């Protein structure tokens, strides 16, 4: 049983590290702010949560604490990305190669009324 | 099996510290203020990952409490900074 849990922990750590590397790579390579936000959101959700899955697997560690931290991250991650995205749009950061701008259209409607 | 686990954990720790260095360099060279904010948030998240890996390597659950504190502070500070940037004044 112990080796099975350690096997799952090894896979979780490897996958979490792969997601962290991909997130930071996206943060560097992507053209504009909004696509970079898309990349960094993945790091906090998939990267760290998979590492925490490894802590949940190894029972002597506080697996209850790991679950609390997973819940906090899954709730807090998207909220921070949304806050940064709306802040970037409000101070007028341009979108490269954008096809739709729903927030811009919404603001024009409100301005029109 | 546990020998492989410790090797994998140490490699993951080294990779995450390298990623933090890359992010700090990117924040230093950031084009606009939002890039620096995203970079700072990313450094916080990667620091969280390093703490969780330390909890796994040293088999000591208190590091996860430190990581919970860092996650809560990072979350609140990023949202406060984003609001400050959007409205140009704090309250």
The Rg value of chain A, from CA coordinates, equals: 19 Å
| Beta strands of chain B, count | 0
Radius of gyration of chain B: 16 Å
The CATH architecture of chain A would be: Orthogonal Bundle
The main sheet of chain A comes to: none
Fraction of residues in H or I helices of chain B:
over 70%
Strand content of chain B: under 5%
The total domain count of chain B is 1
CATH class of chain A: Mainly Alpha
Q: How many strands, what sense, and barrel or not for the largest sheet of chain B?
A: none
Order of helices and strands of chain A: HHHH
State the shape of chain B.
Answer: elongated
Brief summary:
The complex is a heterodimer of chains A (113) and B (91). Chain A is mainly α and 113 residues long. Chain A contains 4 helices and no strands.
Explain this structure:
- The complex is a heterodimer of chains A (113) and B (91).
- By secondary structure, chain A is mainly alpha-helical.
- Chain A has a single domain (2-112), classed as Helix Hairpins.
- Helix content of chain A is 81%, strand content 0%.
- The model of chain B has no long low-confidence stretch (mean pLDDT 88).
- Chain B has one domain (3-87).
- In chain B, helix 1 (2-28) packs antiparallel against helix 2 (33-58) and helix 2 runs antiparallel to helix 3.
- Chain B has three helices and no strands.
- Chain B is elongated, with a radius of gyration of 16 Å.
- Chains A and B meet through helix 1, helix 2 and helix 3 of A and helix 1, helix 2 and helix 3 of B.
List keywords for this structure.
heterodimer, A: 113 residues, mainly alpha, Helix Hairpins, 4 helices, 81% helix, elongated, B: 91 residues, 3 helices, 0% strand
């Amino acid at each position: 049983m112990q080796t099975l849990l350690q096997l799952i922990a090894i896979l979780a750590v490897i996958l979490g590290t792969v997601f962290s590397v991909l997130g930071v790579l996206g943060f560097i390579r992507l053209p504009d702010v909004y696509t970079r936000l898309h990349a960094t959101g993945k790091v906090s959700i998939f990267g760290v949560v998979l590492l925490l899955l490894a802590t949940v697997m190894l029972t002597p560690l506080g697996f209850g604490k790991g679950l609390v931290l997973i819940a906090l991250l899954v709730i807090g991650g998207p909220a921070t990305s949304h806050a940064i995205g709306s802040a970037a749009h409000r101070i007028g950061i341009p979108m490269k190669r954008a096809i739709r701008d729903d927030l811009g259209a919404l603001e024009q409607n409100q301005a029109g009324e | 099996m546990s020998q492989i686990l410790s090797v994998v954990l140490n490699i993951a720790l080294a990779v995450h510290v390298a990623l933090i260095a890359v992010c700090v360099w990117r924040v230093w060279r950031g084009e606009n203020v939002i890039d620096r904010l995203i970079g700072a948030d990313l450094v916080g998240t990667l620091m969280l990952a390093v703490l969780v890996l330390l909890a796994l390597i040293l088999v000591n659950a208190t590091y996860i409490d430190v990581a919970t504190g860092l996650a809560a502070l990072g979350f609140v500070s990023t949202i406060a900074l984003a609001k400050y940037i959007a409205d140009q004044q704090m309250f």
